[in-house]
Amino acid sequence: MNMHPAFPIRYVNPVFRPPSEAQSLILPVTNGCSWNKCTYCEMYTAPQKKFQVRDEAETLASIRSCGEQSATDVQRVFLGDGDAMVLSTRRLMTLLAAIKDHLPKVRRISSYCLPRNLRNKTVAELQELREAGLSLVYVGAESGDDEVLQKVSKGETLESTREALDKLGAAGISRSVMLLNGLGGRQLSQQHAANSARLVNLTQPEFLATLVVSFPQGEERFRQTFASWEPLNQQELFAEMAQFLQALELKRTVFRSDHASNWLVLKGILGAEKERLLSEVKNAMSRPESARLRADWQRGL
Questions:
Q1: Full-prediction pTM beyond 0.85?
Q2: Whose CA is closest to 169, among 140, 200, 197, 194?
């Protein structure tokens, strides 16, 4: 555990946040992840990251202290750890009100969101949270294919994820959906791509990102539930991405595939730039030497 060098906040390492939250104040309201059974995920497996709801008084004191020190400097707040939406609407509203009171320059509040944690939250409750300042959530859907989701112990289905994303959309909260390229391995690659595109088409999220599945700590945990998994090589990952992009029917979604795990960096607006993005993937498949791919040593987490 340590304290933030500039803010009076107690952190339990390691701390994670989305790449786009690099300039945000990370405000932990939980420790770890309440589900924490996904076999592809290594983020919250350390012993010190055991799930726990932060003491409300401690969090409120941190907000007050941050306001006293840097009220005019903080414009974005990310509610950590992996699972802020597990908190009750009442508690979230209390924290959002404190942020508004003590950090008046904040223009965006965001968090990770497990679909399962919205089952008992109504659209009306989510609208309250939106009006109180929660404007963006990151949903790690990983796949839209039920077989893939079952094999990686996600605890969700296409339908449960769709329902959560639709609730958020109806409440006016922006959704950033994350998918894992290669998660189905060779065996399930095509259905993983097809059903992931189906999920995104059904929900029309405001933001969409893809990462390549990887296992810095080894594959042992993952293979306990998906023993037949075979990793995709670079060409197969590109082929899966091309299938996914081809199947998308989006009106206006900001797309990013620029995480460090990706060989090929893709950025654009879907569907306006769908054909350009597809062309870039196909060029990487046919002429990799001209595609400005990341070297293997540049890829990582």
A1: yes
A2: 200
